[in-house]
Amino acid sequence: MRRSTLTKPIVLLSIALLSTVLFFAFFFEDKPYSSSSQNPDSMARTFILWLHGLGDSGPANEPIKSLFKSPEFSNTKWLFPSAPPNPVSCNYGMVMPSWFDIRELPLTAGSPNDESSVLEAVKNVHTIIDKEIAGGIKPENVYICGFSQGGALTLASVLLYPKTLGGGAVFSGWVPFNSSVINQFTKDAIKTPILWSHGIDDKTVLFEAGQAALPFLQQAGVTCEFKAYPDLGHSISNEELQYLESWIKQRMQTSSSSSS
Description:
Rossmann fold; two-stranded antiparallel ribbon; disordered N terminus
């Protein structure tokens, strides 16, 4: 998609990032966040990996975990990695934190994907997951979550991981590869449940891009719960995160009962 000005995609990205930052600034006002963990990683029973959006950083998203106050999360290890700096095509080659290349903004159901860079990013996520499992966390207690570009990477990482994980949560994401990749999904991988949350008023990753995931996942045999949020643009809402907490908690309890 050609653009008449240089600033349009960068403005879209800036507005999206600003809306997310404003949400965290408002919600966590007078609630200082401490980076220290109350529970040693060695005691962690559950692992949650959060993947941020284009141009963002891991530390900027860390306050999310303070929302999860249920006792089920007391032995949870969180990880908020930052994407490496990479040139991004949709922003005319500007270097910024990016998991993989994005060719155009806004993203629609028919936007092109750079599958090679997506698959390279997936390898890095799998390395993180492998390390946690090697450290004693069961695959069914591993949850991958991500917003926007991080949501697209979440989907790819979950579906291409050879084992069944606890779940994958995609916020305002899209399917970052073509349906030909489906034959690479293992029987265990497609058992991992997906939660998809998307704002109807999203102008950066259009709602239609999120909806396009449904037939894709159905074709792959993947269970997906799709939740649409009216009046929500390209950002994360408190309502979405509250539902994520209950969604993960339910799967924690199921995992606990099945292993006892």
